[in-house]
C-alpha cells in the first residue's frame, strides 16, 4: 500500500461503532461489510487500497470532495475473538469505483441500516428536539430478546441470575439509542418484580445509565495482528 495511513485493526467493538457512526454522520453513507480469514486479510486490504483508495489522508479526501469525487474508508475489527476479521467499507456519494464494483447499501435507508452484533445504526429524535441524531440501538429482535429475558429471569431466576442480568444489561454500550432501551428494560424489570414478587424488595440497580465516554481509539497494525494470530494458531496446533 502506497498511501499514508497503514491498515489497522480496531480492538474494541464500542470504538468500532463510534468510528462507523462518525463516518456515516459526515457523509460515508454507502456501505458493504463481511468477514475475512487471516490468510486472506492482507490480500483483501491491498485490493481495497488499490481499487478504492481507502487510506487517503484528510487533505486528499477534501480535494476529492471538491472535485465531486467520492472517498472510501475500510475499518477492520476482530469480533468476539473469532480469529476472523469483520470489515466494513464506507463510501461517500460521488464518482467512486466502489459504486460500480460493490453492492453498496445505504445506511440512511431503513431497510439497509448498518448492523453489528445485535445493534443497528439509525436516526433517532430526542425529546424536545426536532433534529434527528445518528445513534446505535439494539435491533428489534435483540431488544425483544432482552425484554423476554428480563421477564423470564424475574419470574423464575435465582438471585444470582437476576444480579447477572442487571450487570449484563448495564454493560451495553452507552449510545443514546441503547440507553433509551436500557431505561425501558429497567422499568420493565421493576414492573415485573412488583407483579411476580410483591413481598420482596426489588433488587438494587445502578443509580443511572451511563453515557458513552469518548476515548482514544485503540488499534494495532494489521501486520502485528496477523503475526499474533499465526502464533496463536501454532500454539493451538501443538496442544492438539
SSE order, one letter for each helix or strand: EHEHHEEHEEEEHHHEH
Query: How far is the first residue's CA from the last residue's CA?
Result: 37 Å
Based on CA atoms alone, the radius of gyration comes out at: 21 Å
What global shape is seen?
globular
Uncertain regions: pLDDT < 50 for 5+ in a row? none
Sequence of strands across the biggest β-sheet: 3-4-2-5
Return the domain count: 2
Q: In what range is the share of β-strand residues? A: 15-25%
Q: Count every beta strand, where a strand is a DSSP E run of 2 or more residues.
A: 9
Which range best describes the helical content: under 10%, 10-25%, 25-40%, 40-55%, 55-70% or over 70%? 40-55%
Report on the biggest sheet. Answer: 4 strands, antiparallel
**Number of DSSP helical runs:** 8
Secondary structural class: alpha+beta
How would you state the average pLDDT, rounded? Answer: 91
Quick summary:
It contains 8 helices and 9 strands. By secondary structure, the chain is α+β, with helices and mostly antiparallel strands.
Can you walk me through this structure?
It is a single chain. With about 240 residues, the chain is α+β, with helices and mostly antiparallel strands. A hairpin with an 8-residue loop joins strand 7 and strand 8 (about 135-140). It folds into 2 domains: about 10-115 and about 215-240, no CATH class; about 140-195, no CATH class. The strands form 3 sheets. The chain has a 4-stranded antiparallel β-sheet with strand order 3-4-2-5, sandwiched between helices. A 3-stranded antiparallel β-sheet has the order 6-7-8. Helix 2 runs antiparallel to helix 8, helix 5 runs antiparallel to helix 6 (about 160-170) and helix 5 (about 140-155) packs parallel to helix 7. The longest helix has 21 residues, at about 175-195. It has 8 helices and 9 strands. It is globular, with a radius of gyration of 21 Å. Helix content is about 45%, strand content about 20%. It has helices at about 15-25, 40-50, 60-65, 100, 140-155, 160-170, 175-195, 220-240, and strands at about 10, 30-35, 70-80, 85-90, 105, 115, 120-125, 135-140, 220. The relative contact order is 0.15.
